[in-house]
Amino acid sequence: MAAAKYSALLIAGPTASGKSALALRVAEKLGGILINADSIQVYRDLRILSARPSAAEEQRAPHRLFGAIDGAVNFSVGLWLEAARNILEETRQAGALPIFVGGTGLYFKALTQGLSDIPAVPDDVRANLRARTEGLAAAELHAELSARDPLMAARLRPSDPQRLLRALEVLEATGRSLASFQSQRGPPVLDPAATRAIFLSPERAALNLRIDERFEAMLASGAWEEVEALRRRCLDPALPLMRAHGVPHLIAHLEGKIPQDEAIRLGKRDTRAYARRQFTFARHQLPEFAWAAASEAEALALA
Q1: Which of 81, 131, 138, 165 is the least crowded, having the fewest Cβ atoms under 10 Å away?
Q2: Which residues participate in substrate binding (predicted)?
Q3: How would you classify the pairing of strands 195-200 and 8-12?
């Protein structure tokens, strides 16, 4: 078994780019432990729709933080970083190579650049805010945040209720803008100089085709049943899992609100849009990552 020339390997990239398959091949060759860096694959509810590694794939190399969290939990980047830090220490004590793989750019940024020290929001503050804003559209949440915290509102998309609620929670709990905390970062968990960081960068047209084909394959392989089981849980629609790509539209169809073909079209559209945002985030927020085509990424990881 070959030895790595770095202390950790980071593999990022847009959805459907082949990150998981690449990471698994490298783990088998270098004796690595795969650590999930995807904010939806961390949940246990949607193995198929989140493209989580299969049980057979998990037998080929150790996997950590895949399907580990219940969908009712709002698993923040801070909670993920704490879990990743613990797993990283266990991996090093075992003499194995930690391989972080996933599509959530904010997780990688926290690993290599540090995380803002944001105070925990008390449960009663969170519950009161959620009760007050229940039923409000994302645009209405953005309007409230704009009135109360225009600086943070300018940083967030008006269509992102999860982050809008987070900004309002911090404002209510501390009296300060989330932006003021984001400017103060703690030390990174990993030293970028001692890691190898790769961003898979497939050609866009081919990636879009792959996204559409994979979405259809997921539906044919049991994703409808997964989403129906999730729907029956009646979870807060603002939770991360409930906003996974395709989930809102597939649920809307299951509840008789939109036709099936429209739900599928919207699910594919949202996934392609997410891939574009992943490219943009990496370009501006992850300067330490080397961009690589699929044909050259494995050689780069093993060099």
Answers
A1: 131
A2: 15-20
A3: parallel
* Per-residue pLDDT tens over the stretch 216-271: 999 999 999 999 999 999 998 889 999 999 999 999 999 999 999 999 999 999 99
Helix%, strand%, coil% for the chain, nearest 5: 55, 10, 35
Q: Is 237 annotated as a binding residue?
A: no
Q: Are residues 35 and 107 in the same domain?
A: yes
Instruction: Assign 36 to helix, strand or coil.
Output: strand
Check whether 19 is labelled as a binding-site residue: yes
61 labelled binding-site residue: no
In total, how many domains does the chain have?
3
CB-based contact 78:120 (threshold 8 Å)? no
Q: Is 14 annotated as a binding residue?
A: yes
For the record, the structure tokens of 253 come out as 């169809």
Q: Which domain holds residue 26?
A: 8-116+187-202+286-302
Whether 145 maps to a domain, the answer reads yes
Could you tell me the pLDDT band of residue 120, with boundaries at 50, 70 and 90? confident
Q: Is 263 annotated as a binding residue?
A: no
User: Residue 138, annotated ligand binder?
Assistant: no
- Do 31 and 112 belong together in one domain? yes
